[in-house]
Structure formats: C-alpha cells, structure tokens
Amino acid sequence: MSECSVVVVSLDKDIVDLLLADRRYRVLGVFDPRSNQDACGVPILGDDAAWPTWSAQHPEVKVVLAVDAPPLRAKLHSHYGESNLTTVRAIQADISPFASLGNGCLVQRRALISAGVSVGRSVKINIGAMVHHDCRLGDFVTLGPGSRLLGSVIVEDEAYVGADATVLQGRRVGAGATIGAGAVVVDDIPPNTTVAGVPARPLTR
Length: 205
Hints:
The longest helix is centred in the middle third of the chain and has 11 residues, at about 70-80. Helix content is about 15%, strand content about 30%. By secondary structure, the chain is α/β, with parallel strands linked by helices. The protein is built from 3 helices and 23 strands.
C-alpha cells in the first residue's frame, strides 16, 4: 500500500497515535469542534461544517471516522461521504484472510477478527476486541476495548458493545442496543435496549 493522506473525524488520541505510527498513513489533521485540545501534534482543521470546502481543495484525502457513538458514526458517514472514507487496519491487529470488512471500518491494535466474520460499514473495533468465527456485524457498530463476541453472534446496525463485555455464542444483539461495560450477554438483546450486569439484564427506564 502506498502512503495515504488522511484526516481524522473526532479527536481520539488513540487513533491519531495509531496512524502517526503507521508509515502507510500521513495525518493532515483532525476535524473536531474542540479546537483548544492537543491533537498529538497535528492541527485541528475545524468542525464538521468545514469539510465540504476543505475537501473540494483536497479531493485525494481520505477520512477516518474515530467517533465511538454509533448513531453519530452513521450521521458522519453520510456527511463525509462513503467514497471519501478509508478502512484502517492496525498492523498489530490479527485479521483472518477469510473475514470481510466493509468500507470505513477502523480496527485498532491487538483486535482479533476470526475466519467467517462479516463486518458492515463504518464499524469501530477498539483495542483488544475479539470477534470469533462466523459473527456478523451490521453497519455503524462499535465494539469497546476488550469486548468479546464468542462465535456466530449477530450484532445489528448501530449497536454498542461496551468495554470488556462478552456476548455468548449464537446470540443476537438488536439494532441500536447498548451493552454495558463488563456485561455477559446470555440471551438475545431486543433492539434499542440497554443491558448491564452478569448475566446482562435490561436496565429500568
């Protein structure tokens, strides 16, 4: 792969650091409203509204979506344009050649994606997350650091799996559902439901 010039959407220092350490990428800056924040030495280019003008002047530049929240990832995917997004695979990630990743995905260091896994568009797989064989992830899913999907798990669009959470084999996580940090999912999770605990149970509204 030749060097790819990228901009990062949302100031995530883990992602900026990952890209700066990888010679395949040249980071031009970050789009984020927090203009007074340190961005690991790369410039803040403005907020999301600045992108159309900036991209017209730099049509070759690709976009990395670093934001965690699935609904916001979906919104930004549309705003920045699918054709402008790039998929980032950390060198330290272990990705089977028999797995597939959609456009705009972000796979961080020490993540594991096993054979037969299918990952949708703009999915964020955080540090140390593990996706075992034959799992299917929809679009705009986020897997928190250290989370585990134990095989043949289905995670529907815009679901969020918290840090160190575990989903047992063959379970389904509905669209828009949220699994709390450290939870163990032993049953299917309905759409738009938040669960937590061991075993995971829905939280009272």
